[in-house]
Amino acid sequence: MNKSVKLLILITLLHLTLVSCQKNMEQKEYSWTTAVSTPKNYPAEIFSGHLLTSLKPNSYYAYLPFNEIINPEQGLGSNNNSTTVGATGMVPKALDITWMSYVENKSYSGIFILDADKIQALMINGDREPFYDTKSKKTIVNKYYDYEINVGLIPGGIVLVWVGGSENTTLVGRYQAHEDKNVDWKVAHKSMTDKKGIDEYVNYMNEDLPQEIKDQITQGTIPFGCWDTLLKQYNLTPVVKPEDKVETLYFNYINGEFESIFLSLDDNVMLKKRRAVPRKMNIVWHDINDRRMESDVYFDEKKIKALFEQTKPNEPIQFVIEIDRNTKPRETTGILIKLKTNDREIDLHKAIVSQETFTKSIPY
């Protein structure tokens, strides 16, 4: 091998090394904090809860919110009860938790191995967060690497885990805890020294619950199986018309997930994937005068879930969004939605609780 060939190889290797180092410098480390949620009006309290980054003894852990009542207004997947504690550049591998389900007057415990590979895959590339620069009149897409690991506590000892960022929130695990009758609750609350003290404290915490929930407690009719049915996913694809010039779609789903669909950034390509039943939709579109508009649509969870259950297992479903482009700001009509399969259409108008449209000056 002559000197010129050796020199060329050396220069090539040096270039590749520099490119690799540059990419590593540009790649930001992801970080995460912790949060916890419950179904609305089914409060819980954590006695002890940790997300562990290793299964080895004395490994680093981040604690979950404790010594506070967890009962978020938005329900499962919301982050009202959160902490600033977490980790950077490493994923949680296990969850160790003990909590009280107040509507059941039961404590649950469990140690669960998390899907660390799936969690890392969701965080390592960051989430997109576009914004419109009014000076340059251009859309700038930033990457954010800040996430939240949210633990959902459900009656019956069910545990759900989500990974949430600025672009999406994804359910990554469902686990089953066991009833634990050996929790020393007087460590957290002095009055809970014995069964009588625990019963009195639990009854006090349940005083302000809606009558419907109180009746479930006294009649033994807590709907234990219903929350698992919220997790069902469908081969669901949103469909919009090109003339509506839809820029973005945001969906909140009844399984606690959240999805951002940036059609204006992704060449109007709608990703085909399995999705849960929507509970809220936000859509940005253009009216007949090419004015940018934004509409919020809220669904009744029970009604829309029942309509989805009329479809056949695993069949492709189109979530067809029809927009009256003459809709004016503050109007509460104008968005029609239906499910469309190979052999039928299901109108969702009876499942819509409310909708409202506004003008929107900038895309994001």
Word description of this protein:
The chain is of the alpha+beta class and 364 residues long. It contains 6 helices and 22 strands. The chain has helices at residues 3-26, 116-123, 195-205, 211-219, 226-229, 301-308, and strands at residues 31-37, 44-52, 61-63, 81-88, 94-101, 106-113, 127-133, 138-144, 146-154, 158-164, 168-176, 178-179, 234-239, 248-253, 258-262, 273-275, 278-286, 292-299, 316-323, 335-340, 345-347, 352-359. The strands form 4 sheets. It has a 10-stranded mixed β-sheet. A hairpin with a 4-residue loop joins strand 5 (94-101) and strand 6 (106-113).
Structure, briefly:
By secondary structure, the chain is of the alpha+beta class. It has six helices and 22 strands.
Topology of helices and strands:
Elements lengths: L2 H24 L4 E7 L6 E9 L8 E3 L17 E8 L5 E8 L4 E8 L2 H8 L3 E7 L4 E7 L1 E9 L3 E7 L3 E9 L1 E2 L15 H11 L5 H9 L6 H4 L4 E6 L8 E6 L4 E5 L10 E3 L2 E9 L5 E8 L1 H8 L7 E8 L11 E6 L4 E3 L4 E8 L5
Parallel strand pairs: 1-9, 13-19
Antiparallel strand pairs: 1-4, 2-3, 2-5, 5-6, 6-12, 7-8, 9-10, 10-11, 11-15, 13-16, 14-15, 14-17, 17-18, 18-22, 19-20, 20-21
Feature tags:
364 residues, alpha+beta, 10-stranded mixed β-sheet, 5-stranded antiparallel β-sheet, 6 helices
Order of helices and strands: HEEEEEEHEEEEEEHHHEEEEEEHEEEE
Classify the secondary structure makeup into a structural class. alpha+beta
Helix tally equals 6
Largest sheet: 10 strands, mixed
Could you report the average pLDDT, rounded to the nearest whole number? 92
Helix content: 10-25%
Oligomer: single chain
Terminus-to-terminus distance = 58 Å
Number of DSSP-assigned strands: 22
Shape: globular
Q: Work out the strand percent.
A: 35-45%
| Spatial arrangement of strands, main beta sheet | 4-1-9-10-11-15-14-17-18-22
Computed over alpha carbons, the radius of gyration is 25 Å
Low-confidence stretches: 5-26
